[in-house]
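Inverse folding, one chain.
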């Protein structure tokens, strides 16, 4: 979004005085229903300049500005990342209602300093999905991203499929033009990795909440695998919290049976790489100790609950920022970002002036649609990970942060309203689309 447009929006907000509580007219249930219809029919991408997507982006900007002073990272036409919002909203400081709240810590983030770092680092991550702050809590950020490319060959594969047989040929026959290109690209990739580290430092990230499954890249040659430890050494200053979570394809079973408590996953495939360490000075009740060896299959909702509890502990107990990353950052990442945003909001700790309808709109629009989740494709395949996220809202209602200004009853009421609204419009819209397809056929 152009800087002039952003300034006009901010001026409009100030003129309307919508920062005060009680003004709930910005978003209605009809707006949420129209948004879900857009999300279910269309995946947001860099070429989207249609009026509907621009209107959704503007509404997200206004909702953020209700409670935060924000800066805006220009991503028009996907010049930084093709699957990130055209206007990446960076909350800088909470808008205070009184002098005491005005002393609440803010960040020293400056988009003019951040943008050049991203420009040089973005190719180091899959689909250019670099770390970006999406939630401001207690003066620290919760960020999201895709994972770093394991190596240069993987980067080539993802871009356009070139060098498909690179692993099988070039290292066997000595120096070739392609092999020389690989070595030069390797040097360039190292520079990008260093800049990616600079991006994480700038956001003050200390912990990486890593949702990737192990060994998802498949078998590769020894020469290629040998390069990975070299790249990983640049990230030694960050603590990686390994919380392997099922891929979106594992949610196909949920398509046929919509009871969230009956969805299982073969736990043996991931429990060996599970890293369940709580930070010091826990702010919420820690998850129960579990003997994973007793389980061959695991309820995904329980897995989600425990992972979310762990994430919430880190968010509320540490002073450093946290990065939530998945393999690509399209599906599992927004699931946990959405649950975290809603949980902190229901406790009265973020987005304090927004009501349940506005929060439903904001999470659906910003956390899912504008960050590239492909709901039409996922629905056609039966991978209902967004619906699973919506149903998981009911299972986090009691995870109240200690000392939060909202009571448990208030928290339960607000989260229930969000669940019922999102669940209702999801089914209404998807059923409408199914009926349209049947009529067309």
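Residues assigned per position:
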């Amino acid at each position: 979004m152009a800087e002039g447009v952003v300034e006009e929006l901010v001026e409009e907000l100030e003129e309307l005085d919508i920062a005060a509580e009680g003004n709930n007219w910005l978003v209605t249930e009809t707006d949420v229903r129209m948004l879900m219809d857009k999300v279910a029919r269309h995946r947001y991408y860099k070429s989207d300049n249609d009026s509907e997507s621009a209107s959704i982006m503007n509404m997200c900007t206004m909702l953020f500005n209700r409670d935060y002073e924000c800066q805006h990272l220009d991503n028009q036409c996907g010049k930084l990342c093709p699957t990130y919002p055209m206007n990446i909203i960076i909350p800088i400081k909470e808008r205070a209602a009184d002098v005491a709240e005005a002393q609440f810590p803010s960040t020293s983030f400056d988009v003019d300093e951040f943008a050049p770092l991203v420009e040089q680092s973005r190719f180091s991550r899959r689909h250019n999905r670099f770390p970006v702050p999406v939630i401001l809590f207690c003066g620290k950020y919760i960020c999201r991203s895709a994972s770093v490319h394991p190596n240069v060959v993987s980067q080539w594969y993802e871009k356009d499929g070139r060098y498909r047989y690179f692993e099988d040929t070039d290292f066997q026959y000595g120096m070739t033009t392609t092999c020389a290109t690989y070595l030069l690209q390797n040097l360039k990739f190292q520079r990008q990795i260093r800049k990616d580290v600079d991006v994480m430092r700038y956001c003050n990230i200390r912990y990486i909440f890593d949702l990737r499954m192990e060994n998802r890249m498949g078998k590769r040659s020894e020469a290629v695998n040998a390069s990975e430890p070299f790249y990983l050494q640049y990230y030694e200053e960050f603590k990686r919290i390994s919380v392997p979570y099922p891929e979106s394809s594992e949610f196909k079973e949920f398509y046929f049976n919509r009871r969230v408590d009956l969805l299982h996953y073969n736990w043996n495939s991931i429990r060996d790489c599970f890293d369940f360490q709580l930070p010091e000075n826990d702010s919420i009740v820690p998850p129960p100790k579990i003997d994973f060896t007793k389980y061959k299959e695991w309820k995904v909702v329980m897995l989600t609950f425990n992972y979310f509890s762990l994430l919430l502990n880190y968010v509320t107990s540490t002073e450093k920022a946290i990065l939530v990353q998945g393999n690509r950052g399209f599906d599992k990442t927004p699931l946990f970002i959405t649950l975290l945003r809603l949980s902190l909001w229901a406790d009265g700790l973020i987005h304090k002036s927004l009501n349940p309808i506005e929060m439903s709109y904001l999470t659906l629009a910003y956390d899912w649609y504008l960050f590239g989740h492909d709901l039409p494709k996922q629905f056609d395949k039966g991978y209902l990970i967004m619906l699973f996220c919506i149903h998981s809202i009911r299972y986090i209602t009691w995870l109240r942060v200690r000392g939060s200004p909202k009571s448990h009853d208030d928290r339960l009421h607000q989260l229930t309203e969000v669940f019922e609204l999102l669940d209702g419009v999801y089914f209404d819209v998807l059923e409408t689309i199914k009926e349209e397809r049947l009529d067309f056929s």
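Residues 408-440 form the longest helix (33 residues). The chain has 17 helices and nine strands.
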